[in-house]
């Protein structure tokens, strides 16, 4: 987990008004490999083990086993070209260079390393519990969380989710978007553009496969 990410994190229990304090046991090249993130308000500590941050509020159940989600999951399954998918995602997010943070969840996390390598000085936050067993990768910070996205308001330059994740994270995804940042949703519900527009986002693209909306 990159130090830049720890500066943007908030307490999942106390909300975005309360930041987290890094208690690092092992750092390497500005990345936290072992340690914890502590809240001065509720005194809860969130572990960082092997570079993976577990930001689920207690009680924490064991993390699930199994493979990392694939970008090909969902409608229109079939062989896909990861390089092509990454170029498409970069275009949908509209971010050409860093610095800053992009958040990927669901099947998008499979493209995190490629996206980080493509966009100069961008750190990609890959949010999925199955990433616990994955190795550290340049430009990628691995996390899991609960029903909140533990980031300060307007702190991210883009968010990419699967449509099924909107049940938990639609409001949170809108909240963490910075000025000009985009929300990309794969396999969206039909009424999503209207919902996002009602919440102050500008719809940029609507197809059967993707919805893209931007904060002004």
Q: How are the elements arranged and paired?
A:
Blueprint: H1 3-6, E1 10-11, E2 15-28, E3 31-39, E4 45-49, E5 52-55, H2 82-93, E6 97-105, H3 112-118, E7 120-127, E8 140-145, E9 156-162, H4 166-176, E10 177-186, H5 192-198, E11 201-206, E12 210-215
Parallel strand pairs: 5-8, 6-7, 6-9, 7-8, 9-10
Antiparallel strand pairs: 1-2, 2-3, 3-4, 4-5, 10-12, 11-12
Query: Helices and strands, in N-to-C order?
Result: HEEEEEHEHEEEHEHEE
CATH architecture of the largest domain: 3-Layer(aba) Sandwich
Task: Tell me the β content.
Answer: 35-45%
Strand order of the largest sheet: 1-2-3-4-5-8-7-6-9-10-12-11
Largest β sheet strand count, sense and barrel closure: 12 strands, mixed
Mean pLDDT: 94
| Rg from alpha-carbon coordinates | 16 Å
Instruction: Using the coordinates shown, work out and report the CATH topology of the largest domain.
Output: Rossmann fold
Tell me the count of domains.
Answer: 2
Shape: globular
Helix content: 10-25%
By CATH, the superfamily of the largest domain comes out as Vaccinia Virus protein VP39
Overall CATH class of the largest domain: Alpha Beta
Number of helices: 5
């Amino acid at each position: 987990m990159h130090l830049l990410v720890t500066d943007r994190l908030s307490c999942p229990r106390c909300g975005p008004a309360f930041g987290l304090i890094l208690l690092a046991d092992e750092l390497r090249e500005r990345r936290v490999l072992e340690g914890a993130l502590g809240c001065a308000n509720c005194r809860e500590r969130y572990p960082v083990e092997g570079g993976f941050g577990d930001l689920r509020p207690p009680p924490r159940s064991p993390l699930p086993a199994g493979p990392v989600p694939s970008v090909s999951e969902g409608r229109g399954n079939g062989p896909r070209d990861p390089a092509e998918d990454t170029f498409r995602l970069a275009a949908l997010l509209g971010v050409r260079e860093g610095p800053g943070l992009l958040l990927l969840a669901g099947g998008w996390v499979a493209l995190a390393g490629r996206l980080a390598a493509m966009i100069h000085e961008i750190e990609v936050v890959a949010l999925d519990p199955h990433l616990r067993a994955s190795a550290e990768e340049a430009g990628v910070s691995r996390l899991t969380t609960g029903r909140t996205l533990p980031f300060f308001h307007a702190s991210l330059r883009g968010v990419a989710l699967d449509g099924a994740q909107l049940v938990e994270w639609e409001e949170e995804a809108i909240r963490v978007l910075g000025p000009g940042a985009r929300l990309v949703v794969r396999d969206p519900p039909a009424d999503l553009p209207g919902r996002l527009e009602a919440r102050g986002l500008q719809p940029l693209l609507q197809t059967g496969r993707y919805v893209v909306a931007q904060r002004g």
